[in-house]
């Protein structure tokens, strides 16, 4: 049964926490921690009160894992990105629920501001990563220069 008391469709594949974690390459402990932080909420609970995860939960876990592992985002940054996306989804519904042009303008301006903030977050992250790349390349160049110096000095 889901939290709303509605059963998922019979064709919906539901996985227990260990199965879901294994499928996306995480530990069950990580998945529980993401729940504690509010990054994830299981789709349903079993009769025995086990957490059950559907495909959308797995996609969210993959997204979180990718941001954390591949892009180096902190969990706080991931939380902000997920909240920004949830706010845009709420705004999308609100936009279509009103015909008031002023309200629609407000919603769209809020959306633009959200995108601008997200863009700045991403540019900051890119800047930090570029600085790391530059420093690593500088160390590589220094090592190559040392190799060349030793090779010039060493008799063959």
List the topology elements.
Elements: E1 15-16, H1 17-24, H2 28-37, E2 44-45, E3 51-53, H3 55-70, H4 75-97, H5 101-153
Antiparallel strand pairs: 1-3, 2-3
Helix pairs in contact: 1-2, 1-3, 4-5
Compressed to H and E, one letter per element, the order equals: EHHEEHHH
* Helix content estimate: over 70%
Number of strands: 3
Low-confidence region ranges: 1-10
Strand order of the largest sheet: 1-3-2
Q: How many H/I helices? A: 5
Report the end-to-end length measured between terminal Cα atoms. 77 Å
Indicate how many domains the architecture comprises: 2
Structural class: mainly alpha
Average the pLDDT over all residues and give the rounded result.
89
Shape: flat
Largest sheet: 3 strands, antiparallel
3D architecture notes:
By secondary structure, the chain is mainly alpha-helical. It folds into two domains: 70 residues, Multidrug-efflux Transporter Regulator, Chain: A, Domain 2; 85 residues, no CATH class. Helices cover 71% and strands 4% of the residues. It is built from five helices and three strands, in the order βααββααα. It has a three-stranded antiparallel β-sheet. Helix 4 packs antiparallel against helix 5. The radius of gyration is 24 Å and the shape is flat.
């Amino acid at each position: 049964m889901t939290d709303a008391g509605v059963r998922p469709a019979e064709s919906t594949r539901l996985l227990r926490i260990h199965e879901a974690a294994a499928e996306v390459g995480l530990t069950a402990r990580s998945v529980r921690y993401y729940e504690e932080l509010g990054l994830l909420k299981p789709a349903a609970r079993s009769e025995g009160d086990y957490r059950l995860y559907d495909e959308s939960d797995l996609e969210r876990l993959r997204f979180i894992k990718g941001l954390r592992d591949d892009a180096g985002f902190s969990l706080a940054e991931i939380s902000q990105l997920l909240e920004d996306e949830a706010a845009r989804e709420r705004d999308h519904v609100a936009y279509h629920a009103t015909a008031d042009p002023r309200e629609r303008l407000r919603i769209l301006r809020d959306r633009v501001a959200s995108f601008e903030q997200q863009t700045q977050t991403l540019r900051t992250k890119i800047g930090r990563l570029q600085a790391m790349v530059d420093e690593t390349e500088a160390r590589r160049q220094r090592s190559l220069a040392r190799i060349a110096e030793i090779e010039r000095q060493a008799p063959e």
